[in-house]
Write a structure and sequence with these properties.
Structural class: alpha+beta
Largest sheet: 7 strands, mixed
Order of helices and strands: EEEHHHHHHHEEEHEEEEH
Strand order of the largest sheet: 8-7-4-5-6-9-10
Protein name: Cytochrome
Number of strands: 10
Organism: Nesterenkonia salmonea
Number of helices: 9
Radius of gyration: 24 Å
Helix content: 40-55%
Length: about 290
């Protein structure tokens, strides 16, 4: 995940402020989408079991309850460690993509340094495939890491890339992907459509973070054709761009709006404090008089 200057980690998820001197005010696009529950218990259990059976210490630990408990505790965090490693790799790949775009725009950037970092982690092939895609699709960047704001619904976010491809304005989001058993990039989740359409439906775009200067966002599609919304799966083997279908954008926007209400009400409930209190038995009834 990128780290925009106006984004803040809070008790209610990632939130955005209007300037560097103001407190966070609205949730990020990804925080809103995260309100949709994802059942990962099966995957977490599989990761833990796989970690345990592949642990070289398992055989020597058989018969020792203490050693087995240590291995089990270590295996139980396998999913979390895998997630953190994947997030760090995604940050490195995103940074390379950003540097390529900024360099193409003639802004201060160092894609060679970003590629060197990827090489240090054995991830150069992500950059190789990205470069091939960039050239094949003749990407013409308009802006990278674009922070946008929507007052009406109440959210903000940072778009990976605004570019022109094939003569069309495109909003792009990069997703770093591992490989499936077939050696192909794993597919992008449908929830990315909510992320893209929320970006498109922004009302303002950040000009200067320090002063909190914003301008109207011109890519809502209110006038003229809609921008193309594209998720780009970047893997070591290939880059797979997928386009959000125009026919489903309204439904995904409504779902995003509903999740934004869930976030708001969840925060309100949390801020109310404890919802339940302990009560004692009712007072004893007075003895009847004779």
């Amino acid at each position: 995940m990128t780290d925009p200057r106006l984004a803040h980690a809070t008790d209610f998820g990632r939130m955005y402020s209007r300037s560097l001197s103001e407190p966070p005010m609205v949730p990020s696009i990804t925080t809103v989408i995260a309100q949709e529950s994802q059942d990962m218990t099966g995957w977490s259990g599989h990761m833990a079991a796989t970690e345990l059976i592949n642990d070289a210490r398992l055989t020597s630990s058989v018969g020792s309850p203490g050693d087995l408990r240590k291995l089990a505790r270590h295996a139980s965090s396998a999913a979390e460690r895998f997630r953190d490693a994947a997030a760090a790799r995604g940050d490195r790949v995103h940074h390379y993509a950003e540097q390529v775009a900024l360099h193409t725009l003639g802004e201060a950037a160092d894609p060679d340094a970003a590629r060197t970092v990827l090489s240090e982690y054995g991830e150069s092939r992500f950059a190789d495939r990205f470069d091939e895609w960039w050239e094949l699709y003749q990407v013409k960047p308009l802006a990278a890491e674009v922070t946008v704001w929507n007052h009406t619904v109440g959210y903000a976010g940072t778009l990976d890339l605004l570019a022109e491809i094939g003569g069309r304005t495109c909003i792009l989001d990069f997703k770093t992907k591992g490989l499936g058993r077939d050696g192909r990039a794993k597919p992008v989740r449908d929830s990315v459509v909510m992320q893209l359409v929320a970006g498109m439906r922004a009302e303002e775009v950040l000009v200067d973070a320090a002063s909190g200067t914003w301008e109207p966002w011109p890519h809502r599609g209110d006038e003229g054709e809609l921008p193309l919304l594209i998720a780009v799966a970047v893997s070591e083997a290939e880059v797979v761009p997928v386009q959000a279908q125009a026919s489903g954008l309204r439904a995904h926007w409504k779902k995003f709006w509903a999740l934004r209400q869930v976030w708001e009400h969840s925060r309100t409930v949390t801020e109310q404090g404890h919802a339940l209190r302990t009560i004692g038995p009712p007072p004893a009834a007075a003895a009847p008089t004779v």
